Amino acid sequence: MTEExxxxxxxxxxxxxxxxxxxxxxxxxxxxxxxxxxxxEVALDGHKNxxxxxxxxxxxxxxxxxxxxxxEIGLDATSIAAALLHDVVEDNPDYEIIxxxxxxxxxxxxxxxxxxxxxxxxxEKDMNVSMQAENFRKxxxxxxxxxRVIIIKIADRLxxxxxxxxxxEDKQEKIASETLYIYAPLAHRIGLYNxxxxxxxxxxxxxxxxxxxDILHKIKESKEEQDLYIAEFSEVxxxxxxxxxxAYTIKGxxxxxxxxxxxxxxxGVSFDEVYDKFAIRIIYASDxxxxxxxxxxxxxxxxxxxxxxxxxxxxxxxxxxxxxxxALHITVMGPKGRWVEVQIRSDRMNEIAEKGxxxxxxxxxxxxxxxxxxxxxxxxxxxxxxxxxxxxxxxxQFKLNLYSKEIFVxxxxxxxxxxxxxxxxxxxxxxxxxxxxxxxxxxxxxxxLAPLNHVxxxxxxxxxxxxxxxxxxxxxxxxxxxxxxxxKIKSALKEDKKRIAEEGKEILRRKLKQLKINLNEASINELxxxxxxxxxxxxxxRVGIGTIDNNMxxxxxxxRSNALMSYIKSKISRKTNIKKEEIEKEEITTNYDxxxxxxxxxxxxxxxxxxxxxxxxxxxxxxxxxxEGIKVHKKNCPNALSLQSNYAYRIMPAKWIDxxxxxxxxxxxxxxxxxxxxxxxxxxxxxxxxxxxxxxxxFESDGGLFSxxxxxxxxxxxxxxxxxxxxxxxxxxxxxxRL
Length: 739
Description:
Layout: H1 3-22, H2 30-46, H3 60-73, H4 77-85, H5 88-91, H6 97-104, H7 106-121, H8 131-141, H9 147-162, H10 169-190, H11 193-207, H12 209-243, E1 248-254, H13 257-267, E2 278-284, H14 291-305, E3 314-315, E4 328-333, E5 339-346, H15 347-355, H16 357-363, H17 372-384, H18 391-403, E6 406-410, E7 416-420, H19 425-432, H20 434-438, E8 440-445, E9 448-450, E10 462-466, H21 476-479, H22 483-514, H23 521-530, H24 536-545, H25 550-560, H26 563-583, E11 594-597, E12 607-608, E13 620-624, E14 630-634, H27 640-646, E15 651-657, E16 664-673, H28 678-688, E17 692-702, E18 705-714, H29 717-728, E19 733-738
Parallel strand pairs: 2-5, 12-14
Antiparallel strand pairs: 1-2, 3-4, 4-5, 6-7, 8-9, 8-10, 11-15, 13-14, 13-15, 16-18, 16-19, 17-18
């Protein structure tokens, strides 16, 4: 670069820095300006030898991120300083977190440290998990340090998305897919709606450029017509608003390219057939005491002129979204028979909608209840910190919770609870408290008994019924939809399996003693290999539920005297040290022999994809291709993010199942001589049998004889035989048969 070029660049850097101070949403004190100036100087020094792919000086990037943080998100001087410093520690070995703490204090250092941890995640390698999912989970853990870490990371991602043109096409697509997959939903959940919209549009620009530019071109073409329509609509209600002496502004807001595209796909229509491509926003001035009253007054004025769609009223003033968003949304029939969405907000509500977190705190009163965002983060932490949760499962579930629409339901005492749309009675129970969830046996919804998988609607009043004898079972995972509930259920099921395994170990010790075999490390290794299992815990669990019975153990005992088995045994003993660590893993693994799809667990034709070569036992999903039917991919497949981000409607849940751990329905028919207490004897036997779940029971009596049908769920045939044998021994029973 020539001296003239360097001078021009320095002038541009200075201009960008001054612009940053000028556009700040919060009022900067002299101390704030000194802090930002010091951060700018450190960033300038830390990145002095760096350039971006486009060739420009790297310092423009942290300044741009700080500007987004200051202007669009509206955070304070501490956040602006942290945004300027966010890459310094990662990119320059001369700077460490301890240096940042000495210069700027603990808060800035914590935020920069969180951002540095996120940046370094991509450098880690672990082929056994989905790296992206693991990275996202670790990133979300920084929410606990300071929510500003995530907010600055979102700003960083926005600027990266805005300046991706000089990158390779495959890199663009990868970053864009990640953005659509997690960053846009995160921005939505934190209440940064403007940034969410920009991230979605930019994501579409790089994942489906043809579609993006086609819609962009059509929006520009129809802009003049839309402006005229908005003017015509506004004119009709302006006179009425003026008569009420209201201070207001009316703005037309075109729908984002991404949301138009989503609507086209969802409704199967062309661009021209998407009728509500824009919304009209009425923003009014008010003081806190008249804010709600004026919103409904404006609603009344609008609906005096235009007929509203009664099912499209959204009242987020009486019940704000958990992001803090407040507004009235109505859809009315406008001029020329076109539906128009009208959003009614006060200045305060509009600021919260534009700035999210920052504006919410500007208006927050000291005596308010815990903030919704903080409450959400606290609940999220429980799911995040559960090490048992598979990273891919967690991120998938987490993403659903980010973007899901909300419903509002009431407790028996009238307290309002917010849940994601699609939440069930069981989700509600876990939302109240983990202990309530764990003991749930049912619920009353609007006074009527409802099953655990009953999907709740806004306005429902829910009363959870609990019992000390109830505990979670595998079916609960089909009933629960929220990350919190699913995480707790999985932990409980794992604990239950461990308990069964401990009982199984003692049963195995007794049975082997009868066969003159000691239960020790060598015999455990032999048994694990003999039954083709993976861990000792798996062995104990199967003994506990009766899958491995006396006859199978006798087969093992006789094999020990076989010369061939002696040879294998010597091989095993050499591998003992290698196997030891694997055997001691505190997890119960399974053998897999069949692949099923969807919630119904159907067996369908499929092909294994060559890009990731899944094998039985891997976490997988099905992808419905255009010409090759269902192709199965691993959840950590390199193509998974792209498929999940762009073709979510073609994804099918899939899993490998172990036939020995599946649950089966069976119907038992009983006949005999009727007597008092017979039904009680039968139900007592069934309830005392572990791992047998009674689904329904019916009896008929005629002339002193009775017949009955019982539907049960069991894990295997051995358990069912034991149950039938016990039922036959009941006094008065003649026949017990399985249909």
